[in-house]
Amino acid sequence: MLIGHDTDERRPTGVTVVLLPDGATAGVDVRGAAPGTRETDLLDPVNTMAGVHAIVLAGGSAFGLDAAGGVMHWLEAQGRGVAVGPARVPLVAAAVIFDLGVGDHAVRPDARSGARACAAAVPVAEATEGNVGAGAGASVGKLLGPDRAMRGGLGIATLEAHGITMAAVVVVNAVGDVVDPGTGAILAGARLAPDSLALAGSVDSVLGGARDQGAATAANTTIGVVITDAQLTKAQATRLAQVAHDGLARTIRPVHTPVDGDTLFAAATGTVDPEVQSAIAPELLGLLLSVMAAEVTARAVLRAVRAAEGLRRDDLWLPAWRDLPPG
Question: Which residues, in sequence order, are bridge partners of residue 263?
Answer without folding.
Answer: 30, 223
